[in-house]
From TrEMBL:
Coiled-coil region(s): none
Organism: Paracraurococcus lichenis
Stored Pfam families: SnoaL_2
InterPro entries: NTF2-like_dom_sf, SnoaL-like
Official protein name in the record: Nuclear transport factor 2 family protein
Residues covered by the SnoaL-like domain: 13-110
Superkingdom, natural source: Bacteria
Length: 124
């Protein structure tokens, strides 16, 4: 029996169009998300456990006035990596390197390492 395939096109569209429900639907129920940046260093990253917590994160992110562009993707049967570039209206830019570990066509583990311009509020 073939395992389910991950739909990267859905992920790209959901990120670029700010669709939190579509984003949350891509995660396994027991998924784990880790985010590392200047304010959340490797020794104390942000960790979200479970689809409900991750869905809340995406609702917050998608409620902001930002643009998102996804590119440089590498898609395999068990792992996806890509770069996401975001821009805020005040000119602040964010670049994120994202790695997703997949299980049964859903995201089981999500790691984002991101860098922000020094403009504006880094806790957006």
């Amino acid at each position: 029996m073939a395992s389910a395939r991950f739909d990267f096109g859905t992920l790209r569209r959901a990120l670029e169009h700010g669709d939190p429900a579509a984003l949350a639907s891509l995660y396994a129920e027991d998924a784990e998300m880790t985010i590392v940046d200047r304010n959340r260093p490797p020794s104390a990253p942000m960790r979200l456990l479970g689809r409900p917590a991750i869905a809340g994160f995406w609702r917050d992110v998608c409620s902001r006035s930002t643009t998102h562009a996804v590119g440089e993707e590498v898609v395999g049967p068990d792992r996806v990596a890509f770069v996401e570039r975001c821009a805020y209206p005040d000119g602040c830019h964010v670049v994120s390197a994202v790695t997703l570990d997949l299980r049964d066509g859903r995201i089981a583990r999500h790691l984002t390492v991101q860098a922000w311009d020094e403009l504006g509020d880094p806790e957006r």
